[in-house]
Design a protein that fits this description.
Layout: E1 6-7, E2 13-14, H1 19-32, H2 40-44, H3 50-61, H4 72-85, H5 89-93, H6 101-118, H7 133-148, H8 154-180, H9 195-202, E3 227-229, H10 233-237, H11 246-256, E4 257-259, H12 279-284, H13 293-306, H14 313-320
Helix pairs in contact: 7-8, 8-11, 8-13, 9-14
This protein binds a DNA duplex (21 and 21 nucleotides) through helix 3 and helix 6.
Amino acid sequence: MGRAPSSDESGLKKGPWTPEEDNILVDYIHKHGHGSWRALPKLAGLNRCGKSCRLRWTNYLRPDIKRGKFSQEEEQLIINLHAVLGNKWSAIAGHLPGRTDNEIKNLWNTHLKKKLLQMGLDPVTHRPRSDHLDLLSSLQQLLAATDIFTNSWDINVARLQSDATELAKLQLLHNILQVLGANPSSNMDLLNPFGPSLNEVLGLDQSKLQNPYNGSTGFVSQNQPNFQSFEAPSQQQGLPNHMKSEKVDEQLGASYSLPTPLDSLPNLVSASPECSAGKEMENKVNPNEFCEPSSTSTTFEMWGDFMYEEVTDAYWKDLMEQ
DNA sequence: AACCGACCCAACCGCCGCTTA
DNA sequence: CTAAGCGGCGGTTGGGTCGGT
């Protein structure tokens, strides 16, 4: 691990620290404190630059450092903190006693980022990833390519396309539901990792965070056409002219209408229920079909894993003040 | 057993902001 | 006001380790 020992032009040693060097550094700091880091190596008798000494001390030798695997609770907290603070590793580390920013950064880059990706969440925004929309794009292009060889099969292709669009809609909705862990009977607080307390802190409108399937207001109600039409120019570009018909537009328009009810909200909430089924989808799809525990439990349970419910209002208020 | 690629993580690098002269 | 010094931070690197073939 680390790097091969080397030295720079000034003759100062670089690379991994030896136990002897560690001892010298620890002894010196115990006796004198670190004082000026720049002056320290010379005073302590170390052939290192001050920066290297400081890093070694703060990331490894400090007595209050907690080593070993991160607990589930710590991971959950880091994810939640990252949703609020972004890549402010130092600030995040400030909320995890005994953990260093470097350690947290490494954990994020090696584990947590992947975890979020697997959950279909963008590790930067903590929102559901939009790349699942590519699915339909690919499908359309595939069908368009097929059409090149099947000029006389227009009707069949159109039917295929229609079916595929419906299929893609189902897949899209399925993905969304998986990401949200939606379950008609579930407590919708679970869809918001911060719980209602943080929403209150942030001044979020709770009515926008309710379950669309529980008979209450929904993410966006049908009476609140808070949709942002998703234009898919690239798809149209990829289609033969005759397929860029109104009918296709209709289909695409209907299937790509994505609600963005939370776009006006601060970009803070993990897995915001920003996507909802449009009216047409609601008419054609029974969401219950996608909410069976067997099909959604994995993601749902994962979300459960990331709920960190012990956080208090005061805690988040404190966080937001940073 | 040897090879190889993915993963892990300590350490380095460069930049930024604060302090001080 | 400005420049130099310094500490701190986030991004990146690269060598060791692990697991699969």
